[in-house]
Amino acid sequence: MDGNAQAQRCLIRQFAGYAKSISLRYAATFEEAEEIVNDCFLKVFNNLHGYDKAQPFKAWFRTIAINTAIDYYRKNLKWQGQLSLDDLEVADWSDDILSEISAKEILIMVQRLPPTYRMVFTLFVIDGYSHKEIANMLGIQEGTSKSNLRDARRKLQTMIKLNFPHLYQLYNWPNKGFNEN
């Protein structure tokens, strides 16, 4: 496929949606996601010689897409200000709430997380990496990964409370104490 424009277009058509679904989970904006997708395909085309045909292509592609998102995060981290924790009210979490919120609404809230929290949350919750793996990938301590995940969940809970107050009423959350976690 090296240098074969037609084969490259075919691969892009086949995997663009998949690449975008991965990059949107890590990016703060649609534009960032597009940059990650473009970088991903560039890496795929430049590294096709390293693909082991005995392995599933989609898994190899997914790894490149996730690593590209991590690289994008690292590259742009220097441009992001110091993250500070706001005083957060933390509610009890219920998976029932997620059934009341659309995937698009959840994605928008995840994209609003600070970059560090978004990265750890996505790697752990969506892509299934362990805290040890995340720590190695991002160059942080395992405890930092756990802390960032906890804080990401708290921020998401706060966003849900603000954006979907009717769900809190439905589950009688206003009557429960906060900061119980």
Automatic annotation (TrEMBL):
It comes from Dyadobacter psychrophilus. Residues 11-76 form the RNA polymerase sigma-70 region domain. One of its GO terms (biological process) is DNA-templated transcription initiation. InterPro entries: RNA_pol_sigma-70-like, RNA_pol_sigma-70_dom, RNA_pol_sigma70_r2, RNA_pol_sigma70_r4_t2, RNA_pol_sigma_r2, RNA_pol_sigma_r3/r4-like, WH-like_DNA-bd_sf. Keywords: Sigma factor, Transcription, Transcription regulation. One of its GO terms (molecular function) is sigma factor activity. Signal peptide: none annotated. Belongs to the sigma-70 factor family. ECF subfamily. It holds the Pfam family Sigma70_r4_2. Residues 107-156 form the RNA polymerase sigma factor 70 region 4 type domain. CDD domains: Sigma70_r4 (cd06171). The lineage of its organism: Bacteria, Pseudomonadati, Bacteroidota, Cytophagia, Cytophagales. The keyword Cell wall biogenesis/degradation does not apply. This is RNA polymerase sigma-70 factor, ECF subfamily.
